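Issue 218. Parser rejects a valid record. Input:
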Amino acid sequence: MGRPPALRYGGQDRGSGAGGGGNFPYLYDEHSTYTNMVREMVELPIAPFGRIAKKNGADRVSEEAMTRLAVLAEEHAGKLVVEAVKLCTHAGRKTIKVEDIDLALQQI
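Output the parser choked on:
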């Protein structure tokens, strides 16, 4: 049968926390799914995206679909923040305000 696949730590650091610590206390093998690999890059939890999909008519939502929605939301939010930072810096502020987000949304 051979040896089992090597397990690698899924998190970015090995700090304290459940299961040996870190931001993502889970292990995955060399042949893990796309979801597990992407999950360590996503800051947002994925479960709320499943609830959003169900509230809008979906009967079932795969984990991969929820993860993809989380990635897209995070990318979109990142683009908005970059534009909002430019706007608040131009206004001589360090704090992003709602107006900055609204203007950034119009520019994207």
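Fixed in the parser; the record now loads. Residues 69 and 80 are 16 Å apart (CA to CA).
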